[in-house]
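Supplementary notes for students who missed Thursday's class. We covered one full example, reproduced here. Read the sequence, then the structure, then the short commentary at the end.
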Amino acid sequence: MKKLLFTSVTGLIFITTSSYSFANHPSPNVNEQAALTKPFTPKQVCKAAISTIFGKPTNIIKVKNSSDDIYHLSYVRPDDKKLWKFKCKLSGNNIIWTEEGYESDRWLGKGTVDSLVNFTINGKTLEITEIYSDNSTNKESFQLNKL
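Structure (token representation):
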């Protein structure tokens, strides 16, 4: 009887522990030519991506671009007035982003990342998909006239 109880407890621990083992994704290539974004602009794609990743409305996100196809985004979080800043660029259909002031593996294209973010365009609808390390997804759709 004790052996049966021990086996059950061990099995329970194994099941519980194994459900939390996620593999990270390899970092995508960060230097590919950006996929076509028309009728959207790359700026709008980056804005929609930050909105999706952080769950913020697009109307609070401000975007500035530099000459090298890197977009600088920011928003002030309404509840505590904290300013958040990001950099974003497109590489193929991948959206590469990092918090301003950091050079993450995601931005540099090395190592592994906890999620991948990509975009697809169907007519006047832009879809942003974030794929997490357990293969679950977060998807948001944006209409051209709302960005």
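Commentary. Helices lie at 2-18, 42-54, 105-108. The longest helix spans residues 2-18. If anything here is unclear, bring it to office hours.
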